[in-house]
């Protein structure tokens, strides 16, 4: 018994040593490193502009009167999958109205790593959502057998745009799919709109529907990484929507969708919740605490609209889910600036909203971040129920011009410089004027994002160990430091 105990202790110490050795492989040093600074600021008309070249030098003990950002590359956290946006029917229909020159400009702006901002995540809808020109499904109404299933509708606009986006990325893409509502006959309210619930007798039929959709898209040459179970399962909307309580989503996943996906499609990733941060902890507790349901769940998706009822964004709820269920992944699956108004195309707080959300979400354990529509028209649509919103890029279909909003540049400060498989590293600020997040890419290059929330420019020191550089970020500006 004693011999076995000694053997176990030796094995355990060896495991601990191996883990420490693995941690120590990241021997990043800032000494002598060059720093390239990219800045976006409205006050001095900068947009992802290279503004400075700096060099690390010896650092002394920082004073309380100085503003500092402290980065520790040896302390790494989650691996980043990437950043992207949704290709909806609306985005695809607007894209089709652009000239070939503007289409190329658009694809480059989002998906090119060098001349654009390097998106590599795509979300798309399973049949119609509010950002479609009308409600539709892939089957004839009442077809319980699903024999009439066809994705011909999507072949006109959406599939061609997705294929062009995949080509523009030129590398691995994480594409996942989400439904807004089952067909009307499968629901208790007999309506795709205005909430309602999936009838129990259609649980298996609906699970089979996801499989048919994914297989059909993959037959078109579009690889599907995963799916979310239901977009916003606690919201009764005027558009396509369907309610699942936490227990209903758990049981649908455990008894129907999970086994069906695994049997028919193998290891597709399944995302639960896909709704706001306010109730995400309760949903996580119900689903992830059930081993038979949790084994099918890759992780949890969340949105940022919890402020609709008043109050501030509930960033800490993301961290609490991550803390309670560290083996489950967190993905931001949707956010946009609501209530479209063309007079606010260049409204700067829109960009700042993105910057604040992204910094907090990544610092709280999020592995991927997905914006909503990648493109909308000059009315904030098309949207068949009048729920018009902003996108990072709009197209004026009357003039054929593209309009880049502040959110495009704020997102770009992350997506252009934080590569897939980067790891977040420890990053902290000494004063509340600034927000910061830091990442180390696979090639060993660091990227630190710094956002100034204040009305005055801020001079700060970026400190790594006994090395530092000093930089100045304009009022209400954002910077990425690459080093």
UniProtKB/TrEMBL annotation:
A Pfam family it matches: Glyco_hydro_30C
Signal peptide per UniProt: 1-18
Domain of life (superkingdom): Bacteria
Sorted UniProt keywords: Glycosidase, Hydrolase, Signal
Glycosyl hydrolase family 30 TIM-barrel domain: residues covered: 80-418
Family note: Belongs to the glycosyl hydrolase 30 family.
Protein name in the entry: Glycosyl hydrolase
Lineage: Bacteria, Pseudomonadati, Bacteroidota, Flavobacteriia, Flavobacteriales
